[in-house]
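Deliverable D4.2, example record:
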Amino acid sequence: MTDWIIQTISDLGYVGIFLVMLAESIFPPIPSELIIPFAGFAAANGDLNLFGVLAAATIGAVAGMLPWYFVGRLFGLERVRRLADRFGRIMAFNADEIDMAVRWFTRFGPIIVLFGRLIPLIRTLISIPAGLSRMSLPVFLAASTSGALIWNTFLTLAGFILHEHYEVIEVVLDPLSYIVLGLVVALYLLKVVTWKPSRSTSSSP
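Output generated by the structure prediction step:
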């Protein structure tokens, strides 16, 4: 995967950055921790423009977030609630907990989306509850763009400054992805073990 990412950016420049970041936002296993630092390294060499790298990376990242947002929006909250009551233990959430999460998201959604963009794996998944809570598209785009720009700026400047040692960034940040994944799996298993039906379900005849 590393060779493919480097080759794509080397051959296609800004278009390559856009395409790889688009794929990274749709498929979390593709690491932005490698994509953007290498683009920053290319900018330090004079092959690319620093601001062009930031623009291509951020536009690609935001474009890749939109499919998940629309999946959540089109699937609909009521359908998720029905599935939670029917297959709650597998989903690890009941309808009451989903309602509570949506209330939190409705109240603090833009902040959650913005900071969620800074966390590996979460930055892709966070688009789904944004869609489920029917966050307005302009607000979603503003929060997503802000978070993506912050993350991309950090990685681009790191690659620019470290120059030919840009791969050090991946070595440092890559374990974070596994830590987040481990926490997500652990939380899911805990919810599966402790799951209870919603009040409406448990009180129905």
